Amino acid sequence: MDIQRPCGPVCERCRNRKCFRKSEEGCLSLRSGPNVTAWRYLVLEHDPPHGASEDEIEHRARLWISLLVQLALPVCAIYRSGGKSVHGLVMLDDGTGGLTQEGFRRIREVVLRSLVPYGADAQSVTPVRLTRMPNCHGRRRFQTLLYLDPAPDPDGVAITER
After folding, report:
1. What was the pLDDT predicted at 6?
2. Domains of the chain listed by start with CATH number
């Protein structure tokens, strides 16, 4: 197999050679909404405000982690992104293989209404979302795993109550 050979058509706009479907912007992409068949996970990301001091960043990270462990959601993992943000990975799969697009939209509305006032990054709550993997190096920084539960309670019992 020739690794240099493109596996799909070339997008005229972005010149991406590993394309399958058109994104909302009109570019062909592997990471476009039409390529998603089910929504199994949701990333809850918290970024401190720009210009925050190191002490404030750490304080806000601890508050965000405290909030994540008290949520009645099936939290799979909590990890630092290698920078200033803390991510919570929430399982959305209800045993049927993941949520539909409409189901994801309903969850998104609840998350935005409930968690953005506490520091959730509204821009990160999207149906097509890449996330950094914990316990790996990304952008030359280590993504630190803080909590892992590969099979969280699907009823969403808070971590503190388990």
Report:
1. 39
2. 1-35 (no CATH), 41-161 (3.30.70)
